[in-house]
Amino acid sequence: MLSKGVASSIQTCNTLISVYGRGHKLDKAVEMFNLARSLGMTLDEKAYMNLISYYGKAGKRDEAASLFAKMREEGINPGMVSYKIMINIYASAGLCDEVEKLIEAMHRDGPSPDSSAYLSLLQAYTECLKYAEAEITITSMRKNGILPTCAHFNLLLYAFAKVGMTTEAERVYKELITTGITPDQACYRTMLRCYFDYGLVEKSISFFEKIMDTAEPDRYIMSAAVHFYKYAGKEPEARSIQDSMHNFGIPFLENLKVGSKMKTL
């Protein structure tokens, strides 16, 4: 289109790259980027990151990394949004080393990593099963004056819960509370799932009874409670929760099974 008389501006280029990218026409987006460059346009950070973002969404990490490096070679310093796009591309693939390098570059060259950048680093570490590094990251956040949130802690909680590391999950949950953070629904679900999936019925009941007054009505939490109360022979408690679910219009999860992951330990 640029070659057919459309005003050749960087704004037009960015718009067309976005249109093609959103339309899942990556080849066309690349063609538009290359055409703009061949016409001698000075491509800005937005043009590069537009295409890098769509490379990432298409799973083309190498192409994204190559273009990011090219942008820096051209003397364009990545801003916060640019770093986040590249960090998320690596984090979603569990490429811890690459995320670490970008975080280090942010510390060295600016802008300093923010809460969401650290969240992506934690995601990468937990994907790589690097739990110690994930915990060190939370400590580093505090040292850098960035307060971790439930989302940061929940990534680590979920990682421990998924593999049945109950003691570690409990320790992280306690640290979350000690830090002064009020657990959210996601944290409640994660901890309860940790107990429920690995057959820790007494701990399930104890945890549920601690959170029942603060947790919002929730399909998984309430369904799990019905199942583990029944498992423990506490039918009245199970019926009471099931009645509450009916009153709230919350569907009951029939297929949950206490101790469903015990065989994988």
Automatic annotation (TrEMBL):
Superkingdom to which the source organism belongs: Eukaryota
InterPro entries, A to Z: PPR_rpt, TPR-like_helical_dom_sf
Ranges: PPR repeats: 9-43, 44-78, 79-113, 114-148, 149-183
Matches recorded under PANTHER family: OS02G0170000 PROTEIN, OS07G0661900 PROTEIN
Xref: Pfam families: PPR, PPR_2, PPR_3
Protein known as: NADH-ubiquinone oxidoreductase-related
UniProt entry keywords in alphabetical sequence: Repeat
UniProt keyword tRNA processing present: no
Species name: Hibiscus syriacus (Rose of Sharon)
